[in-house]
Amino acid sequence: MTTIKRAAVAALAVVAVAAPAAPTATAAPAYKCASSTKDIDDSSYDGPWPDNWKVTVRTCAARSGGTVYAYAEVNWDGPAFREVDDPTIFDGAKLRLQIKQSRQGTDPVVVERDFPGLEERLEDSTSNANYDGHYRTPTISHRAGRAALGDSVLFLDWHGDGHGYQRHDYTGSPTV
């Protein structure tokens, strides 16, 4: 190897060692989740056929520095006796996702967001008129103190029952 080549190789080696390491990608925060299931009666129907909906909500929260992130997943197993894709089951259905500051007594809500897109999903069935499905909310975030958690509330307004929205509270995530 010539002297010029040796000098060039040595210079490149020095630059490679002296150069700062490439930044590493920030790891995604680790989510902590909890879920609960409720058997919810269709209050607009009292006929002979089964009408209960088994609804499971899994609420997840994670922290990255001072920011808390939360999302929820809803799974349901509804009845299979209605018509296919019946848009008249609900007058409204939404999931309220919250981030709460965890403290002694009642946990105050620091941010919440409603996801009304759930109604359309609940009223969508398979070709056999089976009302089973899944919905995942987008992630919400907010700066929160040392101990915070995600929480979910399901609101269902059954068509024609005259009761308006009925509230169904689900288990919140562990504290992050």
Would you mind describing this structure in some detail?
- This protein is mainly beta and 176 residues long.
- 12% of the residues lie in helices and 43% in strands.
- It contains two helices and nine strands; from the N terminus they run αβββββαββββ.
- The chain has helices spanning 3-18, 118-122; strands at 32-40, 53-64, 67-77, 90-101, 109-115, 132-136, 140-143, 148-158, 166-169.
- The strands form two sheets. Strands 1, 2, 3, 6 and 7 form a five-stranded antiparallel sheet that branches. It has a four-stranded antiparallel sheet with strand order 5-4-8-9.
- A hairpin with a 2-residue loop joins strand 2 and strand 3.
Please write out the topology.
Layout: H1 3-18, E1 32-40, E2 53-64, E3 67-77, E4 90-101, E5 109-115, H2 118-122, E6 132-136, E7 140-143, E8 148-158, E9 166-169
Antiparallel strand pairs: 1-2, 2-3, 3-6, 3-7, 4-5, 4-8, 8-9
Provide a short characterization of the protein structure.
With 176 residues, the chain is mainly beta. The chain is 12% helix and 43% strand.
